[in-house]
User: Fold these one by one.
Assistant:
Number 1:
Amino acid sequence: MKRNIFLVTFMILLFSASVYAGDFSGSLTYSGGYNFTENDLSNTLNLDLNYIHSFTDEIFAEGDLVIRYSNKSAPNPFMIIPQEIYIGAYDLIPNLDVKAGKLIVSWGSADMFSPLDNFNPLPPGISFTTMAQKSGVLAADATYYFNDITYLQAIVLPSFIPSYMPEKYEEQMYLSMFAPQFQAQGIEITSVNITHNTPENPVWGIKLGRSFTSFDAAISYYNGYYFNGYPETMQPVPGDSGMVLDLGLGYPKKGVFGFEFQGDFPGIEGATLRGDLAYIIPQSWEVQGEDMLKDPYIKAVIGADYTTSFDLYLNLSFHLGICL
């Protein structure tokens, strides 16, 4: 089940326009991307609306809404996504910034598919050209600044939120996966009944970051779960129109030790070099006697981006182990 997949992505951000009115701001962005591994071209139009209001010099509220239209290759071409709604505070305790509510937490320096970015699930059919469209989660974020260049950040989610998958698509996927196996045993499966066993324990992470002369770097640890469900229990039972597979999906735990950096690209003025490295320790997970997850493994992303003098944005990245 384990394999390393190398993915090169090349993206062009064509334009971005912004408007402001009072406490509101907004941006309209078109982006396109091409996946060389799957030969897939995607196009996305985003309207991002942001609201911010200061109650005092230290306390504020902020909200963000994304309206997205994608090309027909996406499962759901039109989406309205409330991103963030939270209360924040600066320096109520010296050197400590806090915010709580529905948050977008971005860890990792890579723009796409960072193996360190594990707090927010992605909506179905999302464009991979922006991580701003991740789904917000209820969370608390506290960041303590030791000085101008060193900080310690702690994130806590009271409950785990898995990735969303359309019900019919999920049922069809598992039917095509397991029906042939039971058919070989003389059992004809006609449908699948899926139960999600979502973990009840909180998710948390901690990160220590520092700025150096020409680059920033951080180390981190994440304690949580895989976003996608793994088969946990399965039992064929008689149904009204044939045999039904009762399938229970669970979410294995994982611990992620991470290192990230970003800084000036040597020899190219205006270019940025980024990299993320994750050492992932999964919970052992078996399905019908086969190990789905067992040994620790590594995922990594290294990339560079550059904006030309006529505002053309280029991003090139190399991925190791993206599908694990």
Note: Residues 62 and 171 are 38 Å apart (CA to CA).
Number 2:
Amino acid sequence: MVKCSMLGMLLLVIFCQTLCAEPLGMEAADVVVTTGIRDRMPVDAVESYAATVKNLFCFSRITGARVDETVWHVWYHEGREVAKIGLPVRSSNWRTWSKKTFFKASQGVWRVDVMDGRGQILGSQKFHLL
């Protein structure tokens, strides 16, 4: 009986360690809206910018992904989805970005959500075009 209890406790400890060792899953470690990308990094961080800008980029660094997953950059203007861009993730520490072209009527509040394939938001960044 004691041997059976000890064996049960040992199995429980091994099971708990296995659960704790599981990776947390995919995360957006960094989400930055920027005017450009250089050497796979954002050149600046935009919180507000003149509405005369032609393009902005959303940079995201994804960690904890399995090989060949996809993240989505979903761009919103005044709460309305205007673009959804699928981006491949090919390692557990991957940098990627999307580009959005703006037009004259682009003033207002913008947001970019970084989502996984199930639609879970991994990160988000808000900015204003003045």
Note: The mean pLDDT is 88.
